[in-house]
Specification:
Layout (H helix, E strand, L loop, with lengths): L1 E9 L4 E9 L7 E4 L4 E4 L1 E6 L12 H10 L2 E6 L10 H10 L6 E6 L13 H7 L3 E2 L9 H14 L3 E3 L11 E2 L2 H6 L3 E2 L2 H17 L3 E3 L5 H12 L4 E6 L26 H13 L4 E3 L7 H4 L16 H9 L5 H6 L3 H6 L15 E10 L20 E10 L2 E5 L7
Parallel strand pairs: 1-3, 1-4, 5-6, 6-7, 7-8, 9-12, 10-11, 12-13, 13-14
Antiparallel strand pairs: 1-2, 4-15, 15-16, 16-17
Helix pairs in contact: 2-3, 4-6, 6-7, 7-8
């Protein structure tokens, strides 16, 4: 038993002040620590990540990725299927589950909707469901064949699992930042906002037709928020999430041509970002994600328009939420969107702190600071705009399934 005294405990909805926090550890040792001013948070849940395993291990793997997640206070990650080969068969799911047995976080697996994410033939959806996937997605690609998308939703409905949709109409996408005044100023070929909202409108209509749960990933435009808000009001089974970096950066921030800021979907305009904040406040947006997408240094050290899309986010998630809270949204609401809300959304345990359950929590010092660098990051990749920058707030320790999976060298719990 470990007793933490003088802490603020976040229960998934609000903070409880100055509570003595008792937790069960796999070790039988009795300890008592005074952690005045520290935050005790449920293990964070990130429902959209890329571990690059199998086949892209120079970028990340299950072990480095989940160590990075634990460093950021995250104890549950959803692994998207755009790997090499694609996670589109029962055997591929079993492979990744075996790899994840020694991981530093709980790895939930998302299976592909179509074979090879090619949009031509449905994958082994039933077999992957039996193997334990939590949903289906062709993430990185939109399933443009509406008839095939309908059949996928019908299967997913029968299996009781969501379709997680990457919404970009393929004939409108293809740019390297959001279309607008700044794309013209910077001379970067753009993607219009309508590439996203047109695809979302299709998914809403098919969800209405099939009754399937469709989750729209990483929304980034004002029209997307409006469409999903209206669909929810009509009782359509549609949910969505937003990337934390879309809440911090806008298209104006591409002025330095930093390739770590080249992401998909691209940074929003100021008007779009304002709508995302409104969607957080009124409950239109159901979760916040990192869309952790690692790339090796040599892949990103090229011209902006030649660089791949992707940003890492595991290790800076709490710091970024802290920054977002300074813009007017309560930190409690933001924390609920990475704990209790995604747990409820996907019908999972976790997201709250229960004393009778094995320890699954993080200790966060809101007053400490740290600098992401090649020496301090656990990810294999470095594609973050926060590299070598001072960040407020520091994860001191993360516990998962009763064991310490990360402990800062400045502070020893065990």
């Amino acid at each position: 038993m470990l007793t933490l005294k003088g802490v603020k405990v976040f229960n998934g909805e609000e903070f409880i002040e100055n509570k003595d926090f008792h937790i069960e550890l796999s070790s039988q040792e009795e300890k008592e620590l005074n952690l005045d001013g520290m935050w005790i948070l449920p293990g964070l849940i990130d429902t959209h990540t890329h571990l690059r395993d199998p086949g892209q291990l120079w970028r990340e793997d299950v072990y480095s990725g989940t160590k990075a997640a634990a460093h950021g206070g995250i104890t549950t990650v959803f692994a998207m299927p755009n790997t090499t080969p694609t996670i589109d068969t029962e055997q591929a799911v079993i492979y990744l589950k075996e790899r994840a047995k020694e991981a530093s976080a709980d790895v939930k697996i998302v299976g592909a909707i179509t074979k090879g994410r090619q949009g031509k033939e449905l994958s082994e959806m039933g077999r992957m469901a039996r193997a334990g996937v939590v949903g289906f997605s062709d993430d990185g690609a939109f399933l443009n064949d509406s008839a095939l998308a309908r059949h996928a939703m019908e299967y997913a409905y029968e299996l009781g699992l969501p379709i997680i949709s990457h919404c970009e109409e393929q004939y409108l996408k293809g740019g390297h930042m959001r279309e607008g005044w700044y794309s013209t100023l910077y001379g970067v070929y753009p993607t219009p906002f309508a590439a996203e909202s047109i695809a979302i409108a299709r998914e809403i209509e098919l969800s209405y037709l099939t009754k399937a749960h469709v989750h729209i990933a990483h929304i980034s435009t004002k029209r997307s928020v409006e469409l999903i808000r209206h669909a929810k009001a009509d009782g359509i089974n549609v949910t969505c999430d937003v990337c934390v970096h879309h809440l911090l950066f806008t298209d104006k921030d591409i002025e330095d041509y930093d390739t770590s800021k080249k992401i998909n979907p691209p940074f929003p305009t100021e008007e779009d970002q304002k709508a995302l904040y409104e969607g957080l406040e009124d409950g239109t947006i159901d979760a916040i994600i990192t869309d952790h997408a690692p790339y090796a240094v040599h892949e990103k050290e090229v011209e902006f328009q030649a660089a791949p899309f992707g940003i890492i986010g595991f290790e800076t998630l709490l710091n970024e939420l802290f920054m977002v809270s300074k813009r007017g949204i309560k930190i409690e609401k933001l924390l609920s969107l990475v704990t209790s809300k995604p747990a409820k959304l996907y019908g999972m345990d976790g997201g709250t702190i229960e004393s009778e359950n094995p320890a699954d929590f993080t200790v966060f010092d809101p007053n400490d600071e740290w600098i992401p660098s090649p020496q301090t990051l656990f990810s294999k990749s470095r594609n973050t705009p926060f590299l070598n920058k001072n960040l407020k707030g520091r994860v001191l320790a993360t516990f998962h399934d009763g064991k310490k999976v990360y402990g800062d060298t400045k502070w020893k719990l065990m």
